[in-house]
Structure formats: C-alpha cells, structure tokens
Amino acid sequence: MGNTDRARKALDAMKLLGFSKKQAFPVLKQLVKTFNNNWEPIEDECYRALVDAILDAEDSQQTPASEQGTQAAYEHSEPHGTTRDDRHSYDSAGEDGNETPLVKRPRMGAAHFGQDLQPGPRQSTASTQGSVPTSPQTSRRQTRSLTIAQQAVDHGGPSAIGDALISKEPKPEPGTDAARIGSTVQNTHEPQVVPMCNNGVGSSVQNTQEASFVEVDVASSTNGEVKMSLKCNLDPSNFSISMEEVFKMVEQKCLHSYKVLPPDFSIGKLMSEVCQSVAQLGTMHPDVHSSGGSLHKEAAAPFVKPIACMAAVGIDDNSAGGSSVLESSEPCLHNSIVAWDPEFAQRRTTHDVTDISKGEERVRISVVNEFGSETCPPFFYYIPRNIVFQNACVNISIARIGDEDCCADCSGNCLSASFPCTCARATGGDFVYTPEGLVKTAFLDECTSISRFPEKHHRFYCKACPLERSKNEASPCPCKGHLVRKFIKECWSKCGCGMQCGNRVIQRGITCRLQVYFTHEGKGWGLRTLEDLPKGAFVCEYAGEVLTSTEMCERAIQNARNGKHMKQVLLDADWSSGGVLRDEEALVLDGTFYGNVGRFINHRCYDANLVQIPVEVETPDHHYYHAAYFTTKKVEAFEELTWDYGIDFDDVDGPSKAFGCVCGSRYCRDRRSPRRVGQLGGTSGGAGLGWR
Ligand SMILES: C[S@@+](CC[C@H](N)C(=O)[O-])C[C@H]1O[C@@H](n2cnc3c(N)ncnc32)[C@H](O)[C@@H]1O
Known about the structure:
By secondary structure, the protein is of the alpha/beta class. About 25% of the residues lie in helices and about 15% in strands. The relative contact order is 0.08. It is built from 18 helices and 21 strands. Helix 1 crosses helix 2 and helix 2 (about 20-35) crosses helix 3. Residues about 65-210, about 280-325, about 325-330, about 335 and about 680-690 have low confidence and may be disordered. S-adenosylmethionine binds next to strand 13 and strand 18. One of its GO terms (molecular function) is metal ion binding. Pfam families: Pre-SET (PF05033), SET (PF00856), WIYLD (PF10440).
C-alpha cells in the first residue's frame, strides 16, 4: 500500500472518530515526518499515536469555547448551544452527514482504565469530582458510567476504530442503595463517547456488525461508597471466555503498549485499586488528607491484609483509636465517669453526617437517610471504646496480668512463631485469627452455633445471680443461666510482640467501611457495610458506658418512664465461675447515651450476618471484655449488618416487649411479625446476652 492510500485510510479512521481532515492532516504529515516515513508506529494500535498527537495539538491551541467565541478551528459547525467541551462529547454528525457517535476524546491508552477520565479540561461534565454533590448532607448515590461502545465498523482499516467510551445515565445496581433510590439519583453527567481502540475487552467480537457494549460503571457518593463494575452485552453464545482470560489479554496488551509493567500487574487489582482510591479519597479525614499521614494509609489498608496491622506501624494511636484500653492505674476504674445531661443532649440534636464518629475512628462513618426526613439519628455521644459510667469495676492493671496471662517473651508477630504463644493458648490452644486477620472458620462456626442454638450449649447457674438480684434485691429469682461462651484472647501491651502482631485485631479499631443508614422496613436506623466483607471479618465492637447491673436496672426503669429504648449488652460470660459476684463486677455495656456504631446494629432472628464474640484484651478475667462483632458469612457491600439479640419473643415479660420484629428472616421467632414467612423449631431463649 502506498503512502497516499495509507494517509487516506488514516484520515478516514480519524474522521470516524470525529476529527476533521483539517485537524488530522497536518498532524499526520508531521508524524510521518517524525517517524521517517515509517507508518507502522502510526498505524499501530488503531492509530493511537495519531489520535494522541491530534489531541496534543488541540491541547496546545485550546482555550475554552466559552472564551473562544468561535469554532473556526473546526470544519463543521457546532450543535446549538454547545461549547467546545460539549463538542468533544457530542459531535452530532460526521462530515458526511451520517450520524456518527458523539465523541469525547481521552488518551486512548489510558481510557481502558478510566485513568484519563479524571477531572480534566475536556470532561467538565463528567469529572469524578464534579459528579459528587458538594453537600455532605446529600445522601443520593451518584453513579458514573463509562461505556465502551464497540461499533465494529469495518472500513477496511482497523475494524474497531469506532469503539467508544460512553459516560451514561447512572444505572443503579440491583441490591444496592442505588437501585433503591432509583430515579432520585442526581445525574450531573452528560452522555459521552470516547473513541477506543479495539484492544479492549471487546476485541473478541470485532467482526460482528451489531453494536456491542462493554460498560464500566463506577458508582460513587459523597459518602465514599464506590462500586466498580464491568458489564458486557455481548451475546454469550458467540463465545465463551472467563474474566481471567479477559484480564490476561488486557494485561498483555498493556504490557505491549506501556512496555514496562510490574511483574504482578493485574487488571483485577487495578480495578480494585481504582475503587479503593476513590473510596480512600472520600473517606480520609481532612487532617489526614492534608498531612498525607499514616492514618490515611491505615484507613485504606484492606482489613484482610495480614496485618491489618502492617499499616499500623507508626500510626498515631491518639487519633486513630488504636487502643481499646480504659486508661486507669486504679484497680477499679473511676476516672472516666460519664454523666448524661439530658438537657444538653436535647440542645445538641445533630451529628456530623459525613462522619458520625467525629474523627474518633480510623475511617469515616457516614450517615444517610434515603427514605425519611430525619437527616440523622437522635443525638448521643460517639465514643470509640468503653467508658465506665460510675460504679463499675474494670480492673485493668499491669500487676494483675501474670506471666500466664501474656506472652512477654514474644516479639514481632506471634502468628508467625512456630508455637502458639501464651495468649493463643488462652484461646484454646491455637490462634483464632488467620494471617489475614479473619476469625478461623471452626472457631467462628462454634460461636455462631452457641448464639443460634443456646439451648444446645452448656450454661452456668449462679448461686446468687447478680442480674436477678439487681431486679429484686429482697427476693431474687433463681438464676436463669449464663451461657458458657468462647473467648478470644488478644495479645496486648504486656506482651512482647508488636502492634503488627496478627493476634491483635479488634484493638486496632474499625477498618472496614461502614455507614449508618435509615432502614425502610421499620427498624429505624441500621448499619451497613460499604464494601464486601469475607467471613470472619471484624466489623466493630459494641462500645458504651460500662454499668453495673444495678445501674442498668435503674436506667431501665427511668428509660421506660421516658419511653426510651435501651441499647445494652450484658457482659455475663463468666458470672458464675468465681463464686458470688459483687454488683460492681457484674457488668453491662450501654450504648444508649454514649456509644459507637455498634448501637445501630439491628436484630435478625437466627440467620444474622454478625456474631458477637467476647474478646479479652487488657483484663485476664472474664468480667470485663470487649463485645466484638465478626461476620458469620460473606457479606456484600451495602448489605445491612445484623446480629441476633437472642430475644425470646414468646417471653411477654421480657425484652421482646420493646419491639415487634420485622427482621424479614424466614426463621423469625416473633409470631406477631407481619414479615414472618417461616419458623425455626424452638426459640432462641437468649444467647446469654440481654437486650432491653
Ligand atoms: C440497638 S438498637 C438498633 C438501632 C436502632 N434501629 C436505631 O434506630 O437506633 C435496637 C432497636 O432497634 C429496633 N430494632 C432492631 N432490630 C429490629 C427488628 N428486627 N425489628 C424491629 N425493630 C428492630 C428496635 O427498636 C430496637 O429496640
């Protein structure tokens, strides 16, 4: 083929992309000269070099259309009212009058990965930042969709020169909040089409005459939710490929294009990194953002990284809530007395909806209400870790931790030692956590079983039950029994290992991305995850004021008068093992007035996706411990996080009076429930945890 033919083909190809001959020709001429009449690099990858060169030439001339006032640089006139930027998005017709795709022009190579789709001069209507409403109050999910439209037009030249990337209407995904909000999604984007070389994922259908689409959807919100999905509407009967094959192919093409790539480069990883980066930018606390501090790293570290810990090296624990210690040198902790001032609380009605934790957690925890008018839950003080109310005795002292209660001789990461350390042995002979920071399946399943089928598990019966005594001191009822629960013992400060030790998970605080949201089933506010969570993942603790059981009863009476629901968790795992317990040793956590996100976890009968496991960190006995929530199964992003409160709904005198269950579980135990569709034989009878 001679130079003239090659030039004609190149100009035809450019025309298909919306570049006029006037634009393309001088650039092509220059390129041919630059490459010493060698056409290969010009024709390579569907004229990628040429497109880039034209865009570069445009860049060097470009001023915004609104300022320019003329479109003299273009052969054809602009559609009505469009700006130069718009024109890049909407070339309404080709020079031949045929309807050609409305084009937007990013750099071709980068467009595969959306890299060139960052805010930029020619993407004023579709920038990621621009798409996100600036008001933090806005709870609407914004979606950003990029569609690679494969036109597969065969003009004798590279067949898929017309591949295009379209930013289209937000498209909610089934099962996500975006799907629920449906038409309420605010779309700040215009549809856009970007020319793509056919070296993308759609290449396997380049000969088809029918238009095919590959959509890359990036859904994001002000609250930092990000979901990236890739959808193809290709006819699956034409071919069968696995995503792995696709990734491999794209990876090879990347390698070909960019010449140098790290050996472990993967498209899957790249996509997940894109999501994580968007999430990270959205979830970083402003102070971290500006300082680029280590907290930023920590927040971004996937919690499943061996060391949810690794990133914790060098973190500033003051701000990051890395320790769950109740600070005290007193045997009984009385230095953090919390007094609830109802008047003050009434004056303070709002939370920071961008972060209900007020920066107390490592990640922001946003609040959204897609269904009602209340913008946020009733006021309470957010505390990331437990604080004693008044009389509770939480005896944390170095002196009480004996050699048999810690692993003073360890160093580094206990999980990598050849033998389980003392702390691991305290959990039953082995480490409970995997190197990825997840609770091992066998242990988790046993904890879940105890919680689901308490009647099948062993109970202790107190001689003088503190719970019954606090209800009626004069003539207490016999103890109803306390479940023997399985404990996790984490390494702690008296141990020789470091903060990066894999046997320290809950003490690092929340690392997954959570959101408080208003449920539509009538449960009030609830908690959901914004990312997929594997089975056994730590979600959060239930944090609150530490009360004695007498204080709890007094509060319960007071709250019943005020029509307030209590949000309490009994720490009764070991009440009967040490003989008669003093009232100040029988402890309860109450998150009603001072609490963390754990107070938003709603109840689900039987098949809840969280289980509460007692975790001992700083105290060697089981009177005081942390009530930590772990996932019982894989949980998808945007799923509500639920826990079985262990309520016996048939006990009309008990806590079930508080609410009619609308958990929606097919095993719902509340016979009155309108949403009940089935029944599991037997009742829970309580999982050893009271809930009022
Ligand atoms: C710990 S709080 C959970 C957060 C609460 N939904 C809120 O808005 O603050 C427990 C309260 O949530 C409500 N709740 C939790 N699970 C429920 C369910 N399955 N059905 C109905 N209400 C539920 C009840 O009002 C219960 O007293």
